[in-house]
Amino acid sequence: MAKKTIEKTNEKITIAADKIKASNNLVIFTGAGISTESGIPDYRSQGGIWDKFQPVYFDEFMSSKKARIKYWEQRLDMEKSLSVSKPNKGHKSIAKLHEMGKLKALITQNIDGLHEASGIPAKKIIELHGNTRRVRCMSCSKLISWEETQKMIDAGEKAPECSCGGYFKPDTVSFGQAMPVEETRRAVELSTNSDVFIVVGSTLLVQPAALMPEYAKTAGAFLVIINLSETPYDTKCDVLIRGKAGDVLKNIVNQVISD
User: Fold this and answer.
1) What is the phi/psi pair of residue 50, to 5°?
2) Do residues 225 and 233 touch, judged by C-beta distance below 8 A?
């Protein structure tokens, strides 16, 4: 049985590789499952940040300094894993597809910045939930780096504020905060126009991000799902591969390169 499973997985990898080679509009969609292999916890799972902390909703952040201080304490806890994380073979495999000229766009639910760190240019990445390595003022929209913010925190600012009086917040989508309009629009457009759409490491449960494979499939794209656990699209996709993101992507890309 184990041998048959391996053979079937290899067959699926070959099919995915062949589709990528023939593709003109390859779009890859990633979730937390690709970054857990870089040591970043899946924050919604057991042992993740929401297992340890009560989430601070956006309206709480904006209305209460106590809530902002709590939010920043949680962000500092995240930094323990973020500060040492590096792109893994999954990120690097997608970056290789970019180098080969095969990647149209990368849509991600992740906020860790590891796709850009792997070598994919920012203009090709749609960050649906933002990027925690950037920090934005909620009043004047000024952007500063995490390093600048860290200096403010180290100097004693428990909830950093902008010189305009606004509240600094990581440039990510918090609970109760609206999705970024332009990024969502671009993601829908790219998904709809894709000919091959590959989902990597996402349970496809968080909306509206989880609708992207639906847009792709409905428009006629070849849908591939690479994930360790079940998703709502397992019976709708063309190829389903149960496996670690890094291993599967590396094997797929090696086949794309070899022929």
Assistant:
1) -80, -5
2) yes
Q: In angstroms, rounded to a whole number, what is the distance separating the alpha carbons of residues 36 and 25?
A: 27
Rg (CA), the chain: 19
Annotated binding site: 137, 140, 162, 164
DSSP-H helix ranges across the chain: 2-22, 32-35, 49-52, 58-63, 65-82, 89-99, 114-117, 146-154, 181-193, 212-218, 245-258
pLDDT of residue 168: 98
* 196 contacts 25 by C-beta, under 8 angstroms: yes
- Decide: 19 and 222 in contact? Cβ < 8 Å: yes
Give the lowest-confidence range in 42-46, 52-56, 116-120, 133-137: 42-46
Closest listed residue to residue 235, CA positions, set 214, 256, 207, 253: 214
* 98 is annotated as an active-site residue: no
What residue numbers does the annotated binding site for Zn(2+) cover?
137, 140, 162, 164
* Tally of residues, the chain: 259
Q: Which option is the CATH number for 1-40+87-129+178-259: 3.50.30.80, 1.10.760.10, 3.90.226.10, 3.40.50.1220?
A: 3.40.50.1220
CATH superfamily of this structure's domain 41-84+134-172 = SIR2/SIRT2 'Small Domain' (3.30.1600.10)
Place of tokens 């790219």: 190
With 0.85 as the threshold, say if the pTM is over it. yes
Beta strands, E only, 166-210: 168-172, 196-200
Question: Looking at 91, 98, 115, 129, which residue is catalytic?
Answer: 129
Q: What is the pLDDT of residues 81-130, one digit of tens each?
A: 898 999 999 999 999 999 999 999 999 999 999 999 999 999 999 999 99
